[in-house]
Amino acid sequence: MQEPRLQSRSQNPLTELSELRLECLKDEHVTQLVCRLVFGNMLFEYGDREYQIGVLRAHLRLTMEGAESVIGTAFGDRLLEDVVENDRLDTMSDASASIGANASVDASYGGNTTAKIGGEAKRTRSREQNKHYLPVEARPNDSWEIRARSVSGDSSEPIEGTAIPGATLCEIRKKSGGNRFAITGEVQVSRRSIEVKAKQGNKLNRSMLEWRNKDAIISQILKRAIARESANSLGGRSSSFVAISRSEVVEE
Amino acid sequence: MRLVEDYLDHEDLRAIKAVYESNTPRFDLLVKASGLDPKRDFQHTNLRNLDFCGADLRGFDFSGSDLRQSAKNSNTLIDDTTIFGNAKIDWIDRDSLPIVLKMQQIEAVTTPNNRRLLLNELTTEFGKTPHVVTYMISAATNASDLETFLDFSGFIPKDLSAHQFKTLRGKAQTLLKKRLSRARSRTGRERTAIFSIDSIANQLRNSPSSLSEHIYERLVKVVSEKQHTISLKGMATIEPNDLTEAFARIGY
Question: Domain of life of the organism in this record (chain B) (predicted)?
């Protein structure tokens, strides 16, 4: 009998706003649900006005048929809230030493790679590169919340960047007795979380006073268009939530 | 890759055009022009810092929306058909803020005479308090043409900080350059710019104890230092470069 194949399908109708892709990686012991989730902003220009469209907060929600997540394996349960990938290179040398004479490379699991070059320390040069991902927090019942990365705690900035960089979202266990295996992930945002900002600053001037109401109405028109596009592609859910991306893994 | 324009249908584009080209900032009239539905399209949305003065909000449903810091006045129509369920409200009552109202009237006028009249009322009624002076400096700094800048500078006092002088000097120089360049471009001749000078000098001359007078004093000094003026024993001619030099001396 032929082994059932797992097929992945993703729908990202608002291509600049969000991308969700789910895949299952199976070995003889576990099935890992691997996820890539990235957010961006869209720009719209009309006349001399420019609008930036983004989302302030999003939820990734999984629906499973014939499967369940394994306790303790959820992304965000195990990792720090704001994932940082660190790549650091320290170089210590004296002026006459041949650099690299005592070089050793130490690579450790978890995204940290450190290369150290030994020698008599007279001058130290250090280069460090950090890659930050958006904060992702595990929520109850196979859902996750993604917020904008903000040092100041300002929640009015739209989410932009990678939330989950092709990492294991959770491990999956097949339920016994089920005759269908399907996992659907959906990125949902509340209507209030869709942020349309006029990119003209907020100085108190005549232009701002004249355009404040106009910008708000044009923003509503843009939001309506986004909600309609999403409903046409992904189906409507409720009046207060909009699905912007969907990905599913089904056994065929 | 699909752009925002690809999600907008004919009706969306018509609505955006209607709002963009509308002559009124009144909220309800803009909504009517846009074709948005007051009962549906203003729920769960960000409506902060908007101006609802004079607007007929009967029949609007603002459920779950954020209306904080939005302004209304005694002409704003709200009754039991206006729905605010779970909305965040923190109205600014324009009627109780006459100074803000006056400033907004100044921002809204389009003719110089009305602007000067209202500026006169503002400074007579409320005095040249730090608040009023800060507003006038901000308005002058945001002026889009030299005439507007000089209207405000006629009411700004001379005793300003070095930083304030620096800000105003930069703006004045930019606007003067623009004005002279526009005058030259009409005929393509340098001497045509002279026709602009007379009105600028008159505007500066007729504003005692103000930033305008401060600029005029510098203009007089620049002109009287000229070799040509000395040789004509005090008979002065003002040239575009003299104004440029005088504006460069603002604050010195």
Answer: Bacteria
